[in-house]
Amino acid sequence: MSNLESIVQQRKAVRVYDPNFTIPKEEIANLLSLASRAPSANNLQPWRVIVIQNKELQKELRAIGNNQAQIEESSAVIAILGDIEAHKNVERIFNQNVEEGYVSQEIANLSIERTLSYYPTMPLETRKQSSAYDAGAFAMQFMLLAKERGYDTVTMGGFDKVKFAKRFELPENVFPITLIALGKALAPAFGTSRLPIESFTTFYE
Q1: Rounded to an integer, what distance in angstroms lies between the CA atom of residue 166 and that of residue 173?
Q2: What is the CA radius of gyration of the chain?
Q3: Where is the Nitroreductase domain (predicted)?
């Protein structure tokens, strides 16, 4: 079994954390940097992140998050957000691609032009769904990387997103998607079953 396979099987939703365990800010930053290698439509990287390590703020957030203990007891809460105006960063992204030698300026200019002509015409809900989809890939990559380093995680969609957006003064183009508790398990996670692939897969051979 490969290391990745092992990590995928070991990663579980942990809900009981050691409140005295601390993960350095630099470690979390490194995990986020690696997670940002996740794929995204047109490489627009529409995820936005808030890292909450302040214990008083975690306690406040717990009230917004349906009183889930892991919000307060984990080492940090990683809020994953989506940006429906991520296309506005396209020039910065593709010019950086040119600087780092990945594409020519001609290709970058063409990509920029296409993006700026197409994305603003897309329905708001379509852009929101696309951002959420890409942010989900980022979140999953983050959790697997965290597990590889011996940390535990759990995602939480059950929180008051309106109150969260107000508390953290999110701009109108940014919306909350999920919270990830990050830390060290104090109790093992429950095992969970998975349906056989025959129940969700169709092969055309």
Answers
A1: 13
A2: 19
A3: 9-184
Each residue of 63-86: b (16+ CB within 10 Å) or e? ebbeebebbbbbbbbbbbbbbbbb
Counting the structural domains of the chain, the total is 1
Identify the helix (H) or strand (E) that includes residue 156: strand 152-156
Does 64 have pLDDT greater than 80?
yes
Q: Which two tokens stand for residue 162?
A: 């309106």
* pLDDT > 90 in the chain, percent: 98
Q: Would you state the structure tokens that stand for residue 126, as one six-digit string?
A: 């379509």
Residue 170, pLDDT above cutoff 90: yes
Indicate whether 141 belongs to any domain: yes
Structural domain containing residue 143: 3-84+129-199
Say if 110 falls within a structural domain: no
User: 179 has which bridge partners?
Assistant: 79, 156
- Alpha-carbon distances, residue 204 vs 36, 129, 195 (angstroms): 33, 28, 20
**Residue (of 190, 183, 188, 181) closest to 18 by Cα position:** 183
* 36 within some domain: yes
- Band (pLDDT 50/70/90 cuts) for residue 2 is confident
- Give domain status of residue 156, yes or no: yes
Model confidence pTM above 0.90: yes
Q: 111 is written with which tokens?
A: 């990509």
Please answer whether residues 48 and 172 qualify as being in contact, where contact means their C-beta atoms are separated by less than 8 angstroms.
no
CATH number at residue 17: 3.40.109.10
